[in-house]
Design goal:
The structure is a homotetramer of 383-residue chains.
Chain A (H helix, E strand, L loop, with lengths): L5 H16 L10 E3 L3 H11 L3 E3 L2 H6 L5 E4 L6 H10 L3 E5 L6 H13 L4 E4 L6 H11 L6 E9 L16 H4 L3 H16 L3 E9 L4 E5 L10 E7 L5 E8 L4 E7 L8 E8 L2 E6 L5 E6 L9 E5 L21 H17 L7 H20 L3 E2 H5 L4
Parallel strand pairs in A: 1-2, 3-4, 4-5, 6-11
Antiparallel strand pairs in A: 6-12, 7-10, 8-9, 10-11, 12-13, 13-14, 14-15
Helix pairs in contact in A: 4-5
Chain lengths: 383, 383, 383, 383
């Protein structure tokens, strides 16, 4: 894997966890991670469980113990690394957007095809169970002919004019702003669910045209800013209308200036027989409307896509125990481990378990006697 | 760890992932797992990454390469295992409810205290970031004196009268039904957030009093049922009113007969200065009301507890990328791995990346030229 | 009608509007209104369209041009007035709760029955279209056997300890606090939708036990308070568990101390085949779950109970134009009337209409020419 | 008033009710209503309380007992009637959209200005209290500089291809389809809240290009259709992007093909300091986000715009008793009136009141005795 920040963390975690949940035959081995800063990449490798590390991606590609190159670097380096990997006969998994330009993208595609290596791009939102389920409904004809999609991807993390010119706001590193970062996700969801685009009419805007420069290192944190400012060359917002090949029409809006929306990746699709609605921030739910529901009880249903029959869901937890449920356990184990470090029983412990039991028994006794029961009455039975 | 089913999976996952996200000094080692069915426990050990397995929990406790015993067995065996583990000098982490009876719970507590081992009980819902944040608000006085809690834990998985008499419906194995399984969680959340109970008045009900017996194996699936039926001795629903030591009052309802509610673990707490509301099925959100908000703009706020300052949240993803976000990556990697198995590029691949890029560029061109741009116009530039 | 405050206003409005919407044969005539304060009742009569007024309810009852006596006075006077009206051969429509005590209620019922007059009580929430529709679903068996009801009526208007001891907090005037005011509504909805109560276990609490006395007049406003305080004899909150004759069980909570809940009259009912949920603050919606929905698309549907087939709905507006829609017109007409008073065209006026038209035409032109169109380009065509 | 269908009903109701709620000095008198079908207009006049009627709008305008002409006819006749009314010295209140073309609109504006009469246009959604409150927030600078508006008006009433070619789908009568009917509302809300439009890029689409012709009468019901079909010349959907004079940008979508959305008139506005969101189907609520809320408790608040300080709200009901609350009374009075017609006490009546009282007393007794109390125990006290 080349790169180890936000996306590197998400990819690493997925490689580690996939075989825990699923019964895949091929099991990923986290062979090597690569980054230019030796100390940082070494730490990342240890933290995330990679067996080795490299500081030059060319060295990584040259290794013959590696089958797949995963590219999670800024957009500007995707093409060079991917093509080199393909030329070296490695399978390639690349972060989105694939490239800085269509011309680059075509060269990348040509390279993987010529060298006969497998390739994948990380449009991860396709893989939310609710999105896959929406796809199933559409494919099975439950929505009929598609008329509309309206997709938004709303964020607000750079609204402060003092937020600095980090790499994600750099034309050189990213090619665009909200457009390639956010609209690219909505475009992929639309292609996945509705079909191919035919034509578009767009509008791009940069609201804050000058921002403080970052001194030294860059990064999402944007904490280290200088007193100098520089011009912003990427878009803060990208809006467009679209016509699809199948006659559907759509509105798209990607912005980093929608206050109060931290990660509002949402869509609604309307077909002749039904509609679906999804919101990433409630990712386990799909709202579904069927026109053939009987009169008077038509309405959007909120479906928790966590049943055994929902895509990917059987690998995880029982119905209603949403994806994310397991994090309550991880967080609890943090406390457990801290307790072991300190030699102190963490809360909740057996004292809590005992007091909980006292309440449970008081309720049972109350239900049986049909009167109020004090906890002290229960506890005194054993004191 | 003793046991390896639903809870065993959740615990195992937490041990594996904790050091990936957090900077704990003590790192859990998954030394050994224990179960009576040798084939099944062996498979579980491999699947979940345990280094060895045992088929007798006494053997597990006897091993000196183990510091902590994690008990995820049915309730009826908690006391015996926990006390034995404590006697052997092992730290003990136990599933909830701690015991079948208050008397058992007291003996368990006495055992860990006498043997000076650390102990913890798995009330995992305390550790949702939104719940911890609610606790912070209460502790800091933001809600003032607490007047009310209303807590429900609503499920619907046994509403079919033909659903069989699985072990979770067995008085011998569990002690109670919804009461110990669900109400115990609400009681813990109430103790955590409001304080100690003073007295209660309860009602317990079994709606379906006779169910098909399970032949052979038992389990949540309940698929294998026989033609014979047996009486249900545990409650389907448990309701109670409560008074707390600090003067607050509460209503509690736990049921497995609330159709449409898959896992409705919810509470609302009202204090003199504010209120909080939480719903497990939207676990990243906390609704908060502050009475001192200025007049006319008072209302419940929906807070996405994913900011750096929210409890545990900094270990995970950027704001709005809710806990669970990483599963889109895991699901994607399943497809990637399947592609490698089959020797086919999975979707989305570089073809998709290229087409996405074409749309991105068409929008940019449209925005620049202030007219509609066909995708074919863009693609033909490079063909 | 005896009384003319909050409830008097709601009743008067209903008499005025019923024949506008519905095709009833008997048309209410607002013959006379009654109150002790002559100036205030005269003003109320004029404001609300009553043809005459009285200052003594005995005089009202004595009039032979009146068929129906509507009692909207504080609870303490219901019995005396209702019984006198019945004795005088008048039909009686009474505010809820019917009486201060069951003994009073029984005497009132005996009086109307003995005198053979018609009688009705104002449990108005039964008549929300969504509640009536829930009743239809239950009656038609769509929910099957009822297992659960959980009903809350949550308000927060007296949480300030400095809020004075108004008549609604007076034991003498009202008999109880939240109990008779709010729980009475939930009890009626439960009787309407679930059936008769069998037994109950309750808890009543007064959180603020001493409040400032009101000097002079009383009333909901509570603005005029004195420096003296007095004890509060009514409940701030009333909670209870219930068993119904048909085997259903329920939790009920009425409180004036649930911060952030202005008028949270809500219920959820779970039956063997389905569930319904309602919230007065979203009164046009009913959430409905059907267990026989096909697997994987089960979920609560949000139904806008405004279709022609929904109870009462056909009398009002087209689907989705919720009850309340007409108030946008009332508010607009206020501005229109103010404009006439001032001799100024109110906003929006024909200037707005013209500018709106310019945008509409610019969009049409843009859609036709497939390029951006400036508003000035359109406007200049006619300048 | 010229016209008496859907809009005629809404306007008539507003004239009748305005003085009931508000303290305006000028009180509307419903002098005369006008329509071509004598029987229908006579019935409408009686039903809605107009003192007289005319069958020729020229006759209406010629009357000297009329000060204001209210035009609720199809769009094609607005200009002719409005100009004639202005020439006759009448004030004019006109339905939206003002005209069929900008040219007509300019002539209408010129006519009212030349004749010095007052004029208003019915963009009623401005007058929802929540929308007015949004306006107040924006005007007071609480949202700061406006960046975005995204407005949708989604309906679904003509999705059935067999729905006939009613007058609202006629180019001659209406000029356009969703565009003038729905987008005109969103444009007005945007002008009201954000400011003047600068330029637009649009897309209009007709999904169903041929529909059954209506035989004989026309109308929204569309029930009477013939076997012949005709072409649809108006748009089913209208989408556009916009730039505003103040630098804000927007997306707009109006459609009658968004299944499951009965009347989805919604907008979200994002400014540098805050955001607001509104949905007509929850018209009493405004979601508000303030960027200057303290860290960790930022989130959209759901504000019930029913407090005394909210625009227009003081004229109606107490906080939380949303606009529409009074309809529960109207619907109840329908039952009361029906009871009088039939000579039967409607439900709920004094029997219900008595039974309700029994439950209330049982709860009180239970709370006092701290044990369960059967209803029969209470009732038997007085039998």
């Amino acid at each position: 894997m080349v790169g180890y920040k936000f996306m590197g963390k998400a990819h690493s975690h997925a490689y580690r966890d996939v075989s825990f949940y699923f019964d895949n035959q091929v099991e990923p081995v986290l062979q090597a991670i690569c980054g230019r800063d030796q100390a940082a990449v070494k730490e990342a490798a240890e933290k995330m469980g990679w067996l080795s590390y490299e500081t030059d991606w060319r060295a990584l590609i040259a290794r013959d113990d590696i089958d797949l190159i995963d590219i999670v670097t800024p957009n500007s380096s995707h093409a060079e690394i991917a093509i080199a990997a393909a030329e070296a006969g490695k399978h390639v998994f690349c972060e989105k957007p694939l490239a800085m330009t269509l011309e680059q993208a075509k060269r990348m595609l040509a390279a993987v095809e010529k060298n006969n290596v497998l390739h994948m791009i990380n449009h991860n939102y396709r893989f939310a169970p609710a999105v896959q389920f929406a796809k199933n409904l559409i494919n099975s004809g439950r929505l009929g002919r598609i008329y509309h999609i309206r997709a938004t991807y709303l964020q607000d993390w750079i609204m402060d004019p003092q937020f600095p010119l980090v790499w994600r706001l750099s034309k050189e590193a990213c090619g665009s702003g909200a457009h390639g970062d956010l609209a690219a996700h909505s475009i992929d969801l639309a292609r996945f669910l509705v079909g191919e685009f035919n034509e578009v009419s767009g509008l791009m805007e940069t609201f804050i045209k000058e921002r403080p420069l970052v001194e030294g290192s860059s990064g999402l944190s944007g904490s280290a800013s200088s007193s100098k400012t520089g011009p912003v060359h990427v878009d803060d917002a990208s809006l467009f209308l679209a016509r699809f090949e199948n006659g559907a029409i759509g509105t798209f809006e990607a912005t980093r200036f929608a206050g109060g929306n931290r990660n509002g990746n949402r869509f609604e699709i309307n077909g002749e027989k039904g509609s679906v609605r999804w919101d990433m921030e409630k990712m386990n739910e799909l709202d579904v409307y069927f026109h053939d529901d009987e009169v008077n009880v038509q309405g959007f249903r909120t479906i928790s896509c966590t049943e055994e029959g929902h895509p990917f869901a059987a690998a995880y937890w029982p119905a209603g125990h949403i994806i994310g449920y397991e994090h309550t356990f991880i967080n609890l184990v943090v406390e457990l481990v801290k307790g072991l470090e300190k030699g102190e029983s963490p809360a909740p412990n057996f004292v809590d378990g005992m007091k909980n039991q006292a309440v449970l028994e008081a309720v049972e006794r109350s239900a049986s006697l049909k009167r109020w029961v004090a906890i002290s009455e229960i506890e005194s039975k054993f004191s």
